[in-house]
């Protein structure tokens, strides 16, 4: 008799089928959002953070690498994109490319340093590098210090799509989110993703099998950082500013919170987690600073009662992969 | 500057994370951190006075992750 555990259920083929159904439903729901009268700014912001949380989840959920400095990718890409659009007058697609490429280069540089250590030391190194960048951006003239870069022009994407129109901008952000999400989904269901999972479970065993684990971890870190940067570049078009908030360590904490609330190591968990946290910030704004306290309480409840996160618990209950 | 206490505690944690005598060595951490490193940086290159602590933190974590006086188990 086969013992059914979390690791054996569900079977891979059924898992992919479940995930594809969930993906189609979520995509269909997101496509009709502009028709529902829901505040588009909220959904666009949530989509950017959802992509960011998914990128973070690729690293921690599948690679077992806890980064406490993912805000540096978000902020760096935001500043690069904002500067390219406002000062250099580049088109939106080139601005996004500049931001994403900047985050990728940052991923290579910081990744080469950070992957030399594991566990808490890896987390501390990423936190230190993130804070290092925070103080650099605080003093560098092009970031305008605490004021940030404001009033960023949205322009025409590929010379066709007017991003100043909320509906057009929404669908562009949605397309960006879906592209990023599918890249992550493809990565975790590829041989590369399988090796990442093997490294997470037992790194010495993976090394003994002949895998160069450092290279795999570095690649996962760069991919995660690049996609986090892509999310940061998209966010610039939504918020029309780039500020120090996006580089601060508390932003890295929020990313961890989103992923944990949604479900660590699940495909859709970070998306749900991002929507929950952004909705709380949006709709509980009247409580002022108490929102942070409420977030902390939710984090505690989540860790103490449903450790798998919202999606993780649902998937476990229905014995499905989500 | 609001970031300073956090930076100092971060450096202390880096230098003595696993040490049972951590509290007794906090004064030493202040000497190591503030007197030679931070003040010198502030004197020679003030712009880097905020960032130097994080460079030190990364270096310590890379070279001796358990901290300068921490024990490796």
Automatic annotation (TrEMBL), chain A:
Main location: membrane
Lipoprotein among keywords: no
Signal peptide: none
TM annotation in the entry: 20-42, 49-74, 94-113, 120-137, 168-188, 218-237, 257-280, 287-306
Keywords on record: Cell membrane, Membrane, Transmembrane, Transmembrane helix
Pfam family, one: BPD_transp_2
InterPro entries (alphabetical): ABC_transp_permease, LivM-like
Membrane topology (UniProt): Multi-pass membrane protein
Presence of keyword Transmembrane: yes
Coiled-coil residue spans: none
Compartment(s) where it occurs, according to its Swiss-Prot or TrEMBL record: Cell membrane
PANTHER family: ABC TRANSPORTER ATP-BINDING PROTEIN, HIGH-AFFINITY BRANCHED-CHAIN AMINO ACID TRANSPORT SYSTEM PERMEASE
UniProt name for this protein: Branched-chain amino acid ABC transporter permease
Organism of provenance: Bradyrhizobium campsiandrae
Origin organism lineage: Bacteria, Pseudomonadati, Pseudomonadota, Alphaproteobacteria, Hyphomicrobiales
């Amino acid at each position: 008799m086969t013992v059914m555990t979390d690791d054996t259920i569900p079977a891979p083929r059924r898992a992919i089928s479940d995930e594809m159904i969930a993906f189609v439903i979520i995509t269909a729901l997101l496509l009709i959002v502009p028709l529902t009268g829901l505040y588009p700014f909220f959904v666009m912001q949530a989509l950017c953070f959802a992509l960011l949380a998914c990128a973070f989840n690729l690293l921690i959920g599948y690679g077992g690498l806890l980064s406490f400095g993912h805000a540096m990718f978000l902020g760096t890409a935001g500043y690069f994109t904002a500067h390219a659009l406002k000062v250099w007058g580049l088109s939106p697609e080139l601005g996004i490319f500049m931001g994403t490429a900047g985050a990728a280069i940052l991923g290579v540089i910081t990744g080469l340093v950070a992957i030399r250590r594991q566990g808490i030391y890896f987390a501390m190194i990423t936190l230190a590098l993130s804070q290092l960048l925070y103080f650099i951006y605080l003093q560098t003239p092009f970031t305008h210090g605490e004021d940030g870069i404001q009033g960023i022009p949205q322009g025409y994407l590929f010379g066709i799509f007017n991003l100043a129109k909320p509906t057009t901008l929404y669908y562009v952000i949605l397309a960006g989110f879906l592209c990023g999400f599918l890249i992550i989904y493809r990565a975790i269901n590829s041989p590369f993703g399988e090796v990442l999972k093997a490294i997470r479970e037992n790194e010495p065993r993976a090394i003994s099998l002949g895998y160069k684990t450092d290279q795999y971890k570095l690649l996962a870190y760069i991919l995660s950082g690049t996609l986090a940067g892509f999310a940061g570049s998209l966010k610039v078009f939504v918020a029309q500013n780039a500020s120090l908030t996006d580089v601060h360590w508390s932003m890295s904490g929020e990313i961890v919170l989103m992923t944990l609330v949604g479900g660590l190591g699940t495909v859709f968990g970070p998306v749900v987690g991002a929507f929950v946290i952004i909705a709380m910030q949006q709709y509980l704004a009247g409580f002022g600073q108490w929102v942070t306290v409420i977030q902390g309480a939710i984090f505690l409840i989540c860790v103490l009662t449903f450790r798998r996160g919202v999606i993780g618990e649902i998937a476990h209950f229905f014995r499905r992969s989500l | 500057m609001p970031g300073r206490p956090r930076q100092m505690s971060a450096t202390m944690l880096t230098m003595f994370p696993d040490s049972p005598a951590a509290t007794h060595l906090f004064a030493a951490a202040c000497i190591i951190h503030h007197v030679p490193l931070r003040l010198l940086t502030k004197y020679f290159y003030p712009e880097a006075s905020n960032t130097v602590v994080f460079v030190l933190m990364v270096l310590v974590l890379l070279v001796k992750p358990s901290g300068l006086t921490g024990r490796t188990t």
